Amino acid sequence: MTNEIVMAGFLDLITVKSEEVKSAIESVTFVVVILMVVITAVKTKMSIAAILMSAIVGGIVLWLVNGGINVTSDLARDEFNSAPAIVNTQTVL
Fold first, then answer.
1. What's the pTM value of the predicted model, to 2 decimals?
2. Per-residue pLDDT of the chain (93 residues; tens, 9 = 90+)
3. Residue 76 lies in a domain
4. How many domains does the chain have?
């Protein structure tokens, strides 16, 4: 009985810690992307094209870190699962 309680507490602890780590990774990634855009702007002497490319890449990275792949796969799975049924027809002569 106590072993089950200890395991439940351990699993709860792991769940809480993994959420904290996920939140920290998202925050650090956001800061790194902002720094990347600023550094690109300074190195390229405020070149609009370089800043835009850096911002686009940063946006893609943030999207991926925040679960963009899961959202896309869920949308595709829903779309394929909702496909209409194939109807067989026969011609009568």
1. 0.63
2. 555 556 667 778 888 888 888 888 889 999 999 999 999 999 999 999 999 999 999 999 998 888 877 777 777 777 777 766 666 677 776
3. no
4. 1
Provide the residue range defining the domain that includes 32: 2-66
Is 13 domain-assigned?
yes
Show the tokens assigned to 34: 């902002």
Name the residue type at position 10. Answer: F
Chain position carrying tokens 């002569």: 93
Q: What backbone phi and psi angles, to 5 degrees, belong to 45?
A: 55, 50
What token pair was written down for 27?
Answer: 């925050």
In terms of Cα–Cα distance, which of 30, 50, 28 is closest to 39? Answer: 50
Task: Give 3-state DSSP helix, strand, coil % of the chain, rounded to 5.
Answer: 80, 0, 20
State the DSSP code for 88: -
